[in-house]
């Protein structure tokens, strides 16, 4: 055994050359908690290999006994009360907890007792209970030899102790935290020998802090205490203790924040942990942390027996790359707000605490099953229609036949929504104006230079952004009229509802996103005029970029940035700079935009609308035409309001990003971060705790270092379009490359039509808008996803093909406005089309055809 150290400390457990299986799940998790700055007592670990060589009862080898004696003496633990605990290879893992299966010995004193306790722990690996547990879970397959490491820690002087779950272990709600507390040692509570106090906390969606919902006093008839000479015993609890809460409300709240911090440090994407804690009269300690192995699905009763589908059909358009922790911290709350406001307005009883966002493979997913059910149950809109709106080729849940009572209930909700939504929309547009003003004021302030000032301002601004429910309504409820418009058109023109609806929405009052494109195009014309004028005055001395320093252009560009400088490329990520910070992309696009024929663009829009109206006039009764035209007007307004709300929410992000960068500079100055941009690798709760000094600088740095590595790994991996609940952490049930819908031959692919007309041209594959310089006028732009940062390229393209997206996605809305042939929702299309291929985009049928090369 000379090749493996006999004794490791927490730092040694995490050494690069140590296999996590050799130290076991419990030791590995505790070592990580210690490294991340959580209050974990010092500990020693005997790796599993030493147990294997001593299983047959032979005396401790001189090497192990000597190393143990030396390690205990060095720490003054030779005669101190200790805890000797198991740490098997699969123990405290995400798949198996082994709770109560393996042996732990408390109040162990002296070398003789320590060695005896170590043997007890080793032997428990082969106890009948352990063998049965491993067999039941299919873990004794012979491919991995069971091993048992041993942890030795000082036994803390426990005034109180307990267990906690950073989710509701009964319902599965992830916005709940449950603490159980008992006087004395925790083994009585863990072993079910006594009933402790219970504290239930709810997470505040505005700033992620925990609020005590209620507490229940347990019987606490007995408690575990240490015995003189070693071991523990149960004793009756004093009447005064039994009749008092173990923790005050303030203590419980402090512990709740600590527990959540531990869970987030271990896994910020899925922070659902079962933790053990101790109160020594001065501070709280953490003595164990393991993932909750069987968190129940918290969803509607109708979905409990169906697969749970998660989709990137909509989110992969605006957030195609992995989310940083601060992005996930915001998104997991905002998604719920965006997707529920319309239902609440209609009077639908949304399931409290249901989570509609998930982070898998580093990417943002939506709970598709839940979205489909809510849309059907609330308004009668079927799963197929939901899929069409959000995009993606994905499965559908089973929905029951609708009873008369159900139809009437849905009709009442539709009517209630129709009656209430106009006032709500007016209120929302007022909120857009307020948000733009408020965000502009915040942006112009100098961020505080001290920790408390930064913490206060970050809290204030993030709470405001997360509480913008009027904006959430506009952003998340923009598809009702559009869906009804397509449905009505399909009745008279089967299969053409999307195409005709798209044509009707071409042109008209532009959305804020289209407007910024038009104003950028005007800047492009101005830049060309100035360049031609100044080059002429320079007697032929060509100065292509001379316009940039021209006062007239600078004034016009400043006005543009005042209105749109809060936008950016993939602006939903906090880590990406705003155009006000990095205008290079805008300036680089002016040359292309100067070549765009705006007259032809406007004519194309007018033609699309006129042709659609002519067909409707010929094929739809007069009384129904008025209804359809009204739906088209409402759909255009809702889409425009959706874009306006998005712009306002992004405007809030600009000063928030400034504060985060200021916090990053502050923490970097304190030695907690290597660079200011590392701040994006922390959750909001962690940033606030770091600024309060509740996380040591080394702990902050360790978390960031691990996540930087994880982020790089995620960035290299492809994420599937759809995941099934049972397989979301392993092999997905659906793959993006299998989701392309070919027509009868491999040269044709069917997507969702979102732009008018038909275009042929050379394919230009762009992975990022910064590559837009390669796009030539008339090229067919083929992209993996689009957000408002791509808009200038739409104006130059002859047609648009997008791998992701649905009828309500950004690319779809703007393509409709510009009247360009466009097809979205073509998973895998970037692998089918090569740069330079000739393609045809049919914005009416939604078909993209790969053409033969020109001869």
Output the keywords.
855 residues; alpha+beta; Dna Ligase, domain 1; D-amino Acid Aminotransferase, Chain A, domain 1; eight-stranded mixed β-sheet; six-stranded antiparallel β-sheet; 25 strands; elongated
Total DSSP E strands: 25
Unreliable sequence segments:
727-744
Tally of contiguous helical segments: 28
The secondary-structure class comes to: alpha+beta
Summarize model confidence as the mean pLDDT. 89
Q: Percent range for helical residues?
A: 40-55%
Main sheet summary? 8 strands, mixed
Name of the CATH superfamily of the domain at 8-154: ATP-grasp fold, A domain
Account of the protein in words:
By secondary structure, the protein is an alpha+beta fold. It has 28 helices and 25 strands. Among the domains are: 147 residues, ATP-grasp fold, A domain (Dna Ligase, domain 1, 2-Layer Sandwich), CATH 3.30.1490; 132 residues, D-amino Acid Aminotransferase, Chain A, domain 1 (2-Layer Sandwich); 115 residues, 3-Layer(bba) Sandwich (Glucose Oxidase, domain 1). The strands form five sheets. The chain has an eight-stranded mixed beta sheet with strand order 18-25-24-20-21-22-23-19. A six-stranded antiparallel beta sheet has the order 9-8-7-6-12-13. Strand 24 and strand 25 form a beta hairpin. Helix 19 runs antiparallel to helix 20. The longest helix is centred in the last third of the chain and has 48 residues. The chain starts with 7 loop residues before the first strand and ends in a 5-residue tail after the last strand. About 2% of the residues have low confidence.
């Amino acid at each position: 055994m000379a090749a493996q150290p006999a004794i490791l400390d927490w730092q040694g457990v995490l050494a690069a050359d140590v296999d996590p299986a050799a130290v076991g799940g419990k030791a590995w998790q505790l070592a990580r908690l210690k490294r991340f700055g959580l209050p974990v007592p010092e500990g020693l670990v005997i790796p599993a290999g030493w147990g294997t060589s001593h299983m047959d009862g032979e005396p401790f080898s001189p090497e192990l006994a000597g190393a143990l004696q030396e390690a205990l003496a060095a720490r003054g633990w030779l005669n101190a009360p200790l805890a000797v605990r198991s740490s098997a290879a699969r123990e405290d893992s995400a798949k198996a907890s082994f709770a109560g299966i393996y042996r732990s010995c408390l109040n162990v004193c002296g070398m003789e007792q320590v060695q005896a306790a170590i043997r007890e722990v080793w032997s428990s690996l082969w106890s009948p209970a352990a063998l049965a547990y491993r067999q039941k879970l299919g873990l004794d397959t012979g491919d991995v030899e069971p091993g048992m490491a041993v942890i030795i820690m000082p036994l803390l002087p426990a005034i109180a102790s307990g267990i906690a779950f950073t989710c509701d272990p009964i319902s599965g709600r992830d916005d709940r935290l449950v603490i159980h507390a008992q006087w004395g040692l925790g083994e009585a509570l863990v072993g079910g020998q006594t009933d402790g106090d219970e504290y239930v906390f709810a997470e505040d969606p505005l700033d992620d802090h925990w609020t005590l919902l209620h507490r229940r006093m347990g019987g606490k008839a007995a408690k575990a205490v240490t015995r003189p000479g070693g071991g523990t015993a149960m004793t009756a609890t004093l009447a005064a203790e039994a009749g008092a809460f173990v923790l005050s409300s303030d203590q419980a709240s402090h512990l709740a924040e600590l527990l959540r911090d531990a869970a987030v440090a271990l896994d910020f994407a899925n922070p659902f942990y079962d933790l053990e804690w101790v109160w020594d009269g001065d501070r709280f300690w953490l003595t164990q942390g393991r993932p909750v192995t069987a968190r129940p699905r918290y969803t509607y009763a109708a979905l409990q027996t169906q697969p749970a589908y998660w989709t990137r059909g909509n989110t992969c358009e605006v957030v195609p790359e992995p989310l940083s922790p601060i992005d996930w911290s915001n998104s997991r709350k905002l998604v719920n707000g965006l997707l529920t406001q319309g239902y609440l307005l209609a009077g639908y009883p949304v399931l409290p605490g249901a989570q509609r966002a998930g982070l898998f493979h580093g990417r943002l997913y939506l709970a598709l099953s839940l979205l489909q059910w809510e849309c059907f149950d609330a308004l009668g809109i079927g799963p197929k229609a939901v899929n069409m709106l959000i995009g993606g080729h994905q499965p559908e849940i089973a929905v029951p036949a609708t009873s008369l009572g159900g139809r009437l209930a849905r009709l009442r909700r539709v009517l209630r929504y129709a009656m209430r939504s106009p006032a709500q929309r007016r209120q929302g547009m007022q909120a857009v104006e307020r948000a733009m003003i408020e965000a502009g004021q915040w942006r112009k302030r100098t961020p505080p230079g001290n920790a408390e000032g930064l913490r206060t301002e970050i809290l204030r601004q993030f709470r405001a952004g997360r509480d913008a429910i009027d904006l959430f309504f506009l952003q998340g409820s923009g598809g009702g009229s559009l869906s009804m418009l397509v449905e009505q058109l399909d009745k008279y023109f089967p299969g053409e509802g999307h195409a005709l609806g798209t044509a009707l929405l071409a042109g008209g009052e532009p959305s804020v996103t289209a407007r910024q494109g038009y104003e950028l195009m005007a800047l492009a014309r101005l830049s060309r005029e100035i360049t031609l004028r100044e080059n002429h005055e320079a007697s032929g001395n060509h100065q292509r970029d001379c316009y940039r320093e021209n006062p007239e252009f600078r004034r016009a560009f400043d006005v543009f940035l005042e209105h749109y400088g809060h936008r950016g490329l993939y602006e939903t990520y906090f880590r990406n700079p705003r155009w006000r910070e990095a205008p290079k992309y805008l300036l680089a696009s002016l040359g292309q935009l100067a070549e765009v024929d705006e007259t032809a663009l406007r004519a194309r829009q007018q033609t699309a609308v006129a042709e659609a109206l002519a067909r409707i006039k010929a094929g739809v009764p007069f009384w129904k035409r008025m209804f359809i035209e009204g739906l088209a007007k409402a759909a255009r307004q809702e889409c425009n309001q959706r874009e306006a709300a998005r712009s306002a929410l992004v405007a809030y992000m600009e000063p928030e990003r400034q504060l985060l960068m200021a916090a990053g500079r502050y923490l970097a100055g304190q030695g907690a971060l290597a660079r200011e941009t590392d701040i994006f690798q922390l959750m909001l709760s962690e940033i606030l705790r770091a600024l309060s000094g509740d996380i040591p600088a080394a702990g902050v740095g360790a978390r960031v270092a691990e996540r930087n590595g994880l982020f790089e790994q995620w960035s290299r991996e492809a994420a599937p379009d759809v995941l099934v609940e049972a397989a979301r952490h392993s092999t997905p049930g659906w793959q993006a490359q299998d989701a392309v819908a070919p027509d009868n031959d491999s040269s044709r692919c069917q997507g969702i039509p979102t732009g008018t007309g038909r275009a042929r041209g050379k394919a230009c594959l762009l992975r990022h808008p910064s590559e837009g310089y390669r796009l030539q006028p008339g090229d067919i732009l083929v992209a993996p996803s689009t957000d408002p940062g791509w808009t200038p390229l739409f104006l130059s393209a002859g047609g648009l093909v997008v791998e992701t997206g649905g009828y309500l996605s950004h690319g779809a809305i703007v393509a409709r406005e510009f009247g360009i042939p466009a097809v979205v929702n073509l998973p895998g299309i970037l692998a089918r089309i090569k740069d330079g291929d000739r393609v045809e985009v049919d914005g009416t049928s939604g078909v993209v055809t790969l053409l033969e090369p020109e001869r």
